[in-house]
Structure to design on (319 residues):
């Protein structure tokens, strides 16, 4: 089997050489056919220079340089485009992921799994209130909402079948939820516990500020999985519910009118609220219908024969 090891780097000049040496030793022991794809995500230090020197001396290394710091998702997407192996192994470039764990990923892949995730074990120095408990709650919520039984969605040490990863659109911060998206394609997913080493050099690019988008994603990802191809089910349900409430209250106001009650004087706020509910429900249903037309157009366009292949712009590799 061929393996592609994809690693994004951003300002990791102290870690580049040590990681490469260790990684090379491990891969040469476990398999014959492999390649390294190093992605420089707009580093401002000597990371790119060091990676260039490595690529010049090892033909198994492919170097991709992004013009600025796009983020981990874009960096991984650029690396996946260059991968030629049957499987892709992804890890961070800060030496916190131990390359000696790669054989365990390979064993899982050889058993037929499409996605293998490293489940991080809490370190003794991790704060109980600020890190352990919030992490467990967030992962538990994501597992319940998506139906994918994983204990660690955010960890970056993972392995994928290449043919599968190329079917998954990546943007924003979706790299954290590749296993969830892969599950929609029927992927077989496995995980095993791994230990994360303390950072030796540099500073972490993650913190509490990076945790806030994850909270939004906990809501966004399940909604995308359930309603991306059937928007009317989402907007229509809320719209019909709003219209139903509006019609009930409007019917009661009509009854009150025929009983001789001054609707405007006695129930003015309720009349206003009923009107808003009816209009909002109608707008939501219309929005759901437009969404259905959009989805239909997308799939019809995908099935239509093409006269020629679209122009594909390939990311420029480092020289």
């Amino acid at each position: 089997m061929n393996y592609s090891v994809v690693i994004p780097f951003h300002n990791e000049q102290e870690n580049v050489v040590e990681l490469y040496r260790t990684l090379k030793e491990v891969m040469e022991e476990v398999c014959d056919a492999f390649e390294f794809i190093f992605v420089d995500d707009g580093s401002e230090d000597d990371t790119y220079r060091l990676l260039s020197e490595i690529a010049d001396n090892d033909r198994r290394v492919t170097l991709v340089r992004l013009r600025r710091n796009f983020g981990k998702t874009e960096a991984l997407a650029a690396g996946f485009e260059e991968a030629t192996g049957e499987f892709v192994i992804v890890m961070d470039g800060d030496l916190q992921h131990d390359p000696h764990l790669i054989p365990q990923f390979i064993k899982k892949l050889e058993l037929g799994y499409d996605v293998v995730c490293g489940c991080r074990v809490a370190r003794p120095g991790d704060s109980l209130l600020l890190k352990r408990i919030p992490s467990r709650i967030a992962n538990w919520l994501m597992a319940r909402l998506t139906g994918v039984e994983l204990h660690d969605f955010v960890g970056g040490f993972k392995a994928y079948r290449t043919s599968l990863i190329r079917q998954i659109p990546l943007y924003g911060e979706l790299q954290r939820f590749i296993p969830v998206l892969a599950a929609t394609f029927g992927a077989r997913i496995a995980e095993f516990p791994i230990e994360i080493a303390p950072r030796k050099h540099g500073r972490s690019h993650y913190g509490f500020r990076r945790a806030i988008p994850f909270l939004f994603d906990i809501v966004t990802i399940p909604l995308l999985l359930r309603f991306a191809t059937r928007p009317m089910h989402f907007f229509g349900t809320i719209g019909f519910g709003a219209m139903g409430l509006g019609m009930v209250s409007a019917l009661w106001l009509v009854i009150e009118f025929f009983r001789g009650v001054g609707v405007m004087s006695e129930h003015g706020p309720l009349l206003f609220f009923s009107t808003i509910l009816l209009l909002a429900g109608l707008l939501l249903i219309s929005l759901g219908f437009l969404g259905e037309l959009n989805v239909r157009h997308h799939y019809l366009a995908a099935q239509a024969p093409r006269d020629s292949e679209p122009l594909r712009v390939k990311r420029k590799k480092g020289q």
Confidence is low (pLDDT under 50) at residues 306-319. The radius of gyration is 26 Å. The first strand starts at residue 3 and ends at 9.
